[in-house]
Write a structure and sequence with these properties.
single chain; alpha/beta; 4-stranded mixed beta sheet; 10 strands
């Protein structure tokens, strides 16, 4: 187990998401999740541990489990890996989940979300909702060139357009993609050619941070857009948190 240092560690060493999390709270990465929990108990003075992808470990029994689903992407074909996107059968996940949290970014809701909501309601488990919001505003007179290597780049591009960004072009890369010097050169050249400012996510930016040469230049010239999730029906969300007795 490793305690992430947001200033000293790099995305190559610890991953892009842990670097982002470490700027908000003490963050541990561990291939062995049980060892990670024991490390926290022995070395950190904390009252609450929030685990990402907690359903991946059957050896850990969390007090509460929040199942988070993208409202627009839904459950795909509702099958488990490798035939579909689910990491465990839905029936099993609902059994262990404390609540369902749906995130909407303005796109149309996936067809199978309704059946998922009904399944949770049948179990008398809360269905909570949140909205993905951009924290940065565009210069309405400016043209932007978006690029991103996250799980769903189109989601980011859609959010930019929905919030008034004039996107001339958008370039997609695989999730957790580490950009090369040649890719940085092409992006910078294209942005200059179309008179656009490069724009990307915080997650992409931490993979460019601390680099040299053209990667450093791309980082400096890029507008980094931050996002947050605002719970809808805030009182309902707050009441659910209070029931957890954290």
């Amino acid at each position: 187990p490793h305690l992430v240092d947001s200033e000293e560690d790099s995305a190559e060493e610890v991953g892009d998401e842990p670097l982002l999390l470490a700027s908000k709270a003490q963050t541990i990465i561990a291939k062995d999740r049980v060892a990670g929990i024991k490390f926290i108990e022995s070395n950190l003075d904390v009252d609450l541990v929030i685990m990402d992808d907690g359903f991946q470990s059957a050896k850990i029994k969390p007090s509460h489990a929040l199942l988070v689903v993208d409202d627009a992407r839904g459950l795909g074909n509702s099958r488990t890996l490798p035939s579909g996107p689910l990491r465990a059968p839905l029936k099993t996940q609902i059994h262990y989940a404390s609540a369902l949290f749906l995130i909407n970014d303005g796109r149309e809701q996936a067809e199978n979300i309704k059946s998922l909501v009904k399944a949770f309601e049948k179990k008398s488990k809360p269905v909570l909702r949140g909205k993905l919001c951009l924290l940065d505003k565009p210069d309405e007179k400016q043209s932007y060139m978006a690029f991103s290597g996250i799980g769903d780049p189109e989601k980011f591009f859609h959010s930019l357009k929905l919030n008034g960004f004039n996107i001339s072009e958008a370039h997609s890369y695989p999730d957790h993609h580490f950009f090369s010097e040649m890719e940085a050169k092409k992006l910078l050249a294209r942005a200059t050619e179309i008179l656009a400012i490069p724009v990307t996510t915080e997650k992409d930016a931490v993979r460019l941070r601390g680099k040299k040469n053209l990667l450093s230049k791309l980082y400096q010239k890029t507008k980094i857009v931050k996002v947050t999730i605002i719970p809808q029906h805030a009182k309902k969300f707050e009441n659910w948190l209070l029931t957890l007795d954290l």
